[in-house]
Request: fold
Amino acid sequence: MAEEHLASTADLPPDVPQPNIFPLSWRAESAQVAKLEDIWKSSRREYWDPEALAWSTFNAEAYSIEQREAMAYWFTLLSVFDASAPPVFARALTRTYELHEEDAVRRAFFSIERDEQNHEQFCGMAIQRLTPGGPLDREPATDLGRRAKRNAAWLYHNGGRYWNGYSSALPRYSLAVVFSAFLMGETAAATLFHHMANHCEEPVFQEAFRHIGRDEGRHMAICLTLMERDYPKLSPEERSLVTKQIRAGYVFLSGVLFEPPEEFWDLPDDFIATQHEIEEVARSAGFGVASYDEKRDNWQRAMLNVKGVLDRYDIPFPAIPEIGIAGDEVGDIRPEDIIPIF
Ligand SMILES: [Fe+2]
Ligand SMILES: [Fe+2]
Reply:
């Protein structure tokens, strides 16, 4: 018989080899648990359903086909970040179980997972109503739509590279370092959705952006709470990893918050010019995409907020000359350095 049957020879089983995926414990030890429990409660109170949005008020025909294609492109760009969020956070959630994290921390990650699934679902619903068929399969109706589809294909190519890098990188980092990367993403997301909620004129989109912005604010609060718990005891090596992760976050998230830098992003030469044209058409539809200057200012403000957090823990900030922030040089960012999540 190949399999051992220990129960017939021993009164109690041997110790389970560790680390084991599930903890069978519900630790609540740190001073931050109370705050995490409050955030958990608000995540349940503020839960929303993408299907219950006021879709009945939405009339795609009110927009020209070019405007529809332009708005669908923006949601596609967003999806490169938001559609990777559920699998990416699922990995992080699994990690909290492997590490036998406190019960409230596991639930915090679960709440993020559930929210991100909503964000992804909403992107899909918006694209499907604007341009039925999906960004990579549908036949575009206009010249701009054709160029938008080509841009989308390149964005998707980069999203795939991000996923490969993330999957291989995550197990190498402590959860504390991972929080700094997540904080970047959550700060970026909160910034973007607050802008869109305030500038987009289509009521159903506005409503969704308000919900998503509030979710992202909660995710930010989770990261900040965990940093409060773990950052006072960071090792010097972890500190420099955090500095590098902030720069990685800037590089990766600039793809949606600002403009994709050449570092990491593998895109054709006319990509940005095409995107500007598309954004202009979306703006003419009252979609409220930020202008170049607004994006730069929003992103700079968001990065300075993150800097304020790192300063509190005496962690050096990376140089981000693109938006006028001086700091430590961290060298080139490679795909396997990139673990931020949107
Ligand atoms: Fe999100
Ligand atoms: Fe988020």
Observations:
- The chain has one domain: 29-49+59-337.
- The CA atoms of residues 249 and 340 lie 5 Å apart.
- Residues 112, 116, 186, 189, 216, 219 surround fe (ii) ion (ligand 2) (CB under 6 Å).
